[in-house]
Amino acid sequence: FGSPALHGLANHAFSQHLLPILTLLFIYSLVKNKFVWASLAASLMWHAEPPIAVFSVPLLIYRAIKQKISLRVMTLALLAFVIPFLPLLAFDLRHDWIQLRSLLDFLAGNTRGLQEIRPLIFWERLLDRPQKFWAVWQQGLGLSLAILAPIMSFFTKSNRWLRLTWMYLATLMIIFIFYPHDLKLFYLDGVRLLLILVAAFWLKKLPLWLVVVFVLINLVLMKPSRTFNSLYINQVEAIDKIYQDAGGDGFKVYTFVPAIYDYNWQYL
User: Fold this and answer.
1) Are 180 and 120 in contact (CB under 8 A)?
2) Predicted confidence (pLDDT) at residue 84 exceeds the cutoff of 60
3) How many whole angstroms separate alpha carbon 59 and alpha carbon 56?
4) DSSP codes, 165-202
5) Taking the CA of residue 17 as centre, how many other CA atoms within 13 Å lie in the half-sphere pointing to its CB?
6) Buried residues in 98-117 as b, exposed as e (16+ CB within 10 A)
7) This prediction's pTM
8) pLDDT-based confidence at residue 257 (cuts at 50, 70, 90)
9) What average pLDDT does this structure show over 177-194?
10) CA distances from 63 to 24, 52, 60 (A)
11) pLDDT the model gives residue 163
12) Residue 44: left (phi > 0), alpha (psi -120 to 50), or beta?
C-alpha cells in the first residue's frame, strides 16, 4: 500500500506489470513445494518479460532436484510449462515461424533494431547489475526502508519464504551479470514485490505506530498528482480518438508484436 513503485505499475497498462503477481505465485508455489504451479507461473512470465521467464527456471530445477520430485509431478510440471506456449506455436505455424526466427536473430545479434545499442562488457555489468537491483529496491521502499530492511531481516528468524526469496534474487543477479544485453528496470517488476515482502517480515516486528510513519512517508513521496498524468489516461484518450474518427462505422485492428524488442521503432 505504501510503495510508490507498485502504485506506479498500477497506473498504466504494460505487459511487464503482470510480473509482480506471477513472481509472487512462483515463489509461493516453491515454498509450498507445488512445482506444477511454479512451472506454470514461470511459463506465464514469458508473456510478460521473456528473460525473467528463462532466468527463473534454474531455481525451479534446483528446488525440484533437491525435493526429489516424482516422475509424475515432473511430467505435470513440464506440461504446465508448455501449455502457455501453445498459442505462440499456433501463430508461428501460420506465419512462417516469425517469432522463432526473430528470437534467434535477437540472440545472435543480427537484429537491425538493436545494432545501435552497445552490449555492456563483463566488468561494466559487474557494476551495472547491483545498481539496477538497488534502484528497484529503493524505488519500491524508499531510501530508509531500502537500507534498514535487508540489514534487519538477517537478524530476524529466517524461514523458507525468506530463504527462497534471497536465493531467487541472488540467482537473477548472477545470471544477469552474464546476460550481455541491457537490463531494463521493468524486467525486475516482479522483484519489487518480493523486496517489499522482505521488508514486511521486518516491519511486523516494529510497533504499529512506527510502521504507520514509514507508510505515510512513502505515501507523501508518491506525489499523487502523477496518477492523473499516467500513461493509462493517454492510452484511453488514444482509443477514444479512434472511435471518434470511425464515425460510427465498424472497424478492427490486427497487430502482432513478438516479445523481442523494447521499443516500437525497433520493429521498423
Assistant:
1) yes
2) yes
3) 6
4) HHHHHHHHHHHHHH--S---GGGGHHHHHHHHHHHHHH
5) 11
6) ebeebbeebeeeebebbeee
7) 0.76
8) low
9) 86
10) 16, 17, 5
11) 87
12) alpha
